[in-house]
């Protein structure tokens, strides 16, 4: 189980090695993603709170990266954080997420990126429920929920 101290160490020193890497040009990303997905995933934007696909959705499945299909979160770790965005307590695997310090918007946060394609997913905070205390606050536009039949 990852804890806040693990996240800070990853962001400061070295992220977990990804299972694979995917790189492509921004032009290729723009052709693959919708304009909203491109803005969030490649330009580090944020979608509107409470008006997104997965904020209030708790159906079983696995949440994957829209960009590369990497499996990121299990629905069993999703919870109602009242933040306006889908929130999870743990990634599916230790190597699913890449972490980076983000001091944009006059805040100090840790950005969560897909560890395979580097796409912006959201941020992770130390104010989640126990036992981990983590809240992965993600953008729905960065995720696709795979049903149990699709897994």
UniProtKB/TrEMBL annotation:
Keyword Oxidoreductase: yes
MF terms (GO), sorted A to Z: peptide-methionine (R)-S-oxide reductase activity
GO biological process: protein repair; response to oxidative stress
GO cellular component assignments: cytoplasm
Group of enzyme by EC: oxidoreductase
Keyword tags: Oxidoreductase
EC number: 1.8.4.12
Catalytic activity line of the entry: L-methionyl-[protein] + [thioredoxin]-disulfide + H2O = L-methionyl-(R)-S-oxide-[protein] + [thioredoxin]-dithiol
InterPro entries assigned to the protein according to its UniProt record, in alphabetical order: Met_Sox_Rdtase_MsrB, Met_Sox_Rdtase_MsrB_dom, Mss4-like_sf
MsrB domain segment(s): 26-148
Gene name linked to the record: msrB
Domain of life: Bacteria
Record bears the keyword Oxidoreductase: yes
Coiled coil: none
Protein name, as recorded: peptide-methionine (R)-S-oxide reductase
PANTHER family per UniProt: METHIONINE SULFOXIDE REDUCTASE, METHIONINE-R-SULFOXIDE REDUCTASE B1
